[in-house]
Amino acid sequence: MIVCVCKRVSDREIRQLVDEGATSLRDIRNATGLGTQCGKCACETRLMVRDLCGHAPNPLRELAALAYELPSSATA
Is the pLDDT of residue 61 over 80? Predict the structure, then answer.
């Protein structure tokens, strides 16, 4: 599957780069140029790399992201 349409980077390429030692979106970006045009692929790639590397999610970051998703009536 193509993850970055602008640079034509596939999920296979990302997996291969992780297998070769990439551990972050920055590593993938440096190797492929992914995320340097429109940037729509950056979040998905970051999640893929985190999952492939076995990094535990940061609970505080997850909580902060959730706060933006709550409807405004939930805070009242």
Answer: no
- The pair of structure tokens assigned to 75 is 């805070």
**In this structure, what token pair is assigned to residue 18?**
């992780």
Question: 50-66 burial by CB neighbour count: b if 16+ within 10 A, else e?
Answer: bebeeeeeeeeeeeeee
8 Å CB contact between 17 and 31 = yes
Kind plus residue range of the DSSP H or E element containing 2? strand 2-4
pTM score of the predicted model: 0.69
CA 13 to chain centre: 14
